[in-house]
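Render this sequence as a predicted structure.
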Amino acid sequence: MKQNIKKIGTYALILVVGLFLGKWIFSTSEDNHKHEHSHESSPETVKEEIWTCSMHPEIREDQPGDCPLCGMDLTLLNDDGSGDPNAVRMSARALQLAKVATGFPTNAPSEKSGLTLDGKLMFNEQKKQKLTADFHGRIDRLYIDFDGQEVKKGQVVAEVYSPELETLQKELLIAYKQKDENERLYNAAVSRLRKLNVSQTEIDQLISGKQIEGLLKIRSPFNGVVNNLSVRQGNHLERGDLLFEVENIDELWATFEAYERDANQIKVGDSIIFTTRAFAGRKWKAKINFISPTLRENRRTFTVRANVANTDGLLKPAFIIQGQLQRKTTDKSSIWVPKSAVLWTGKRSVVYEQVLEEEARLSFVMKEVSTGEVSGEYIEILEGIDLNTEIAIHGVFSIDGAAQIAAKPSMMNRREKKSSSVSINWQEVKINNETLNHVLENYLALKESLAEDEDKNSIVLAKDFLANVKKLDFSDEEAKEGLTQLVKDVSTSKNIDMARVHFQFLSDALIELVKVNKKSEKKLFLQYCPMADNDNGAFWLSEEEEIKNPYYGSMMLRCGTIEGEF
């Protein structure tokens, strides 16, 4: 019995030891496995995912979803995949909301709409007729009451009494009685009256009626309107005195303003088709017959002119018109793209080529191009792409913005701010909407003043801007100091030219602040001048769609394009 108890105790001891050893062995193996697994999935080998919005780069999420501000699909910021590292990718929803459309370049058509020119209708100065007194007299009857009164060709506009005319009429009657004996005397008398614009009909009436009145009827030389009325009924006249002018309305001048850069595209003899808002849908065609040999230095523009028939009288002087220069070309090797496809950067311009990556993903890569002539809504591409290059033709600015926030090559990242004393990543600056609106109010007033060439007022506004910035509430003190410095650079400028240089860097900062922080429904337009900053190009913000260039003012007030809106 005791032996059995000993055996049972021994077996029990062996069982306990075995269970202990088994648990220890398997536990160690599992821990090692867990350790190895943990090592394999450590942060050193797992790439952190950051999801952002191409329209609101301040949004940073660790998983996909919708942008809380605009509802666009978030895109993977560091999702470079195996494609081009310079390619920018946008989700299908982002492309749709940004209204991105693509297309292929085209050859220049055999006949294409050319340069667009703005202008207005004017009286034809070559057809203007001045009506003057040919002798001493008195205005007996005046049928014209005011400037602008319309007259018809041959219409009697005034009757002038003259003792000289009365004498000539008497001489005519005497000569007529002696016509058979002295025809030369009669012809001379008729000739003197004809030189005074007395018609043959009036001469015949004088002879048949034999009534001497001494009245000369003055008639309008053509259909037109009266201008510069200088006399009233009863006024006495001396030889050479001006009665009034008659402006011809049967033929007008269509005058257009062309910029210096377009001089090589316009030639005498070119056809131009123009329209006016007064008659929507109707077009008039004319030929250019004059190009001004001089340039308006303050605006860098010159005048282009064409004569326009107006026998139906629909067109009126001072009508605003828009013309399309018509030119023919047979160069089939040219490459043309819509102007909306090109982002202008002065010395270099860019387009975005669409590329197809793995899994049929669409992306875009920036391509630098050289541009040539502008023809209506198209621009010539000299080099950089070919006819087989599919490019974005709409929504290009949105693509460029997505490239910028993804740190990919883009137009917006092009300028080196060597002259700016502030180096802040404005994309990371948070500012409340009220403060931003105060800043924008001062900024936009300064922009308007620069565009109006207001030298002293611009500096005064910049100083007010500086004082206001110092009072505003910024959660980021470094950003407040940086913005203060940018405004101070403008306010301490010695002249408007230096103020405009510093205004570029202030504009760059404001554009980034607006892009990241602005939540107002009021639109702001991002506008761009390719000639500013020594042809490097510069941006600015505006409340209005109309271009008012703050970098050149009246010299090139309308030079610029709208590149986006917030």
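Summary. The two ends are 98 Å apart (CA to CA). Confidence is low (pLDDT under 50) at residues 24-47, 414-419.
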